[in-house]
Amino acid sequence: MKAADYLAHLRHDLDAFGACLAGDLSAPVAACGDWTLYDLADHLGRGNLWAAAAVTERRGDFDSAPAPRDRAALAAWLSETGAVLLGALDADPGAPAWTLAPPPTVGFWQRRRCMETLIHRWDAEHALGAGGLIDPALAADGVAEVLDTMLPRQIRLGRTGPPPHPVRLEATGTRSAWLLGGPGDPVATIQGTAADLLLLLWGRLDADDPAIGWLGDRGRGRAALEGALVP
C-alpha cells in the first residue's frame, strides 16, 4: 500500500474516532480492560504525539500530558494531535525514524499508526453500539502487519511464544492467504473476510464467532491464537 493510501485511511479513521467523542465518554471499551472511551481517546491522542516525535525527533521516550476531560476540549485536543501526526507522516516513506521494529523509517509509522487508529476507531464505535466498515485491502495489510511485525515483536520481548502449530489464514473476497506460525503443514485453516481475520488476531472477534470458518484440527488451530499476538 502506498504512503498516500495510508495517510488517507488514517485521516478518515481519525475523523471517525473524533465523531465518537460526541457519545458517552464513560462507555466501556470491551477489548481494552477497564478503559472507557475517554481513556481510549487519551491513548490514541498521546500515541499520535509519541509517534510524531519518533519521526521528527527520532526518539521513543516522548511523553505528553493526559487528555483534557472536558468534551469539547477533548475533541479539539484529539484533532490537534491527529494534525501533528499527519504532518509528521507526510514525508518520504524511506526517511529515517525511530521505530518499534524494522524498518527504521517513516514508512513504518505510516503503516503502524494507520492500523492502530483503525483498530481503535472500531473499538470506539463498538463501545457506542455502532460498527463501521473496514476497507478489505487495508484489513488484509493489517493481517500481514500482525504476522510480519507485531507478533515477531511480541515474541522478541518475551510476551508470548511462537504459535505451537502452523495455521493458515484465508481471506474470503480478497483471495489473500497467510501462514500463522510454522514450520510444517498447517493443522487448520481459518476463513473469514480480511476484516474479520484482522479483528480475530487483535482479540476483537472470538474464534467461535459465526463469521469465522474452520477447516482441519480446530482444537490445535485455536491454540495458535491463544498467545499475546499483539500488545
Briefly say what this structure is.
By secondary structure, this protein is α+β, with helices and mostly antiparallel strands. It has helices at 3-20, 37-56, 71-89, 106-127, 136-156, 194-201, 218-223; strands spanning 167-172, 176-180, 188-193, 213-216.
The strand line-up of the biggest sheet is: 2-1-3-4
Q: What is the overall number of helices?
A: 7
Number of DSSP E strands: 4
Mean pLDDT: 96
Strand content: 5-15%
- How far apart lie the N and C ends? 23 Å
Contiguous runs where pLDDT drops below 50 for at least 5 residues: none
Q: Helix proportion of residues, in percent?
A: 40-55%
Multimeric state:
single chain
Layout of secondary structure:
Layout: H1 3-20, H2 37-56, H3 71-89, H4 106-127, H5 136-156, E1 167-172, E2 176-180, E3 188-193, H6 194-201, E4 213-216, H7 218-223
Parallel strand pairs: 1-3
Antiparallel strand pairs: 1-2, 3-4
Question: In words, what does this structure look like?
Answer:
There is one protein chain. The protein is of the alpha+beta class. 49% of the residues lie in helices and 9% in strands. It has a 4-stranded mixed sheet. The mean pLDDT is 96. β1 (167-172) and β2 form a beta hairpin. It folds into 2 domains: 3-132, Four Helix Bundle (Hemerythrin (Met), subunit A) (Up-down Bundle); 137-223, Nonspecific Lipid-transfer Protein, Chain A (2-Layer Sandwich). It has 7 helices and 4 strands; from the N terminus they run αααααβββαβα. α1 (3-20) packs antiparallel against α3 (71-89) and α2 (37-56) packs antiparallel against α4 (106-127). The chain has helices at residues 3-20, 37-56, 71-89, 106-127, 136-156, 194-201, 218-223, and strands at 167-172, 176-180, 188-193, 213-216.
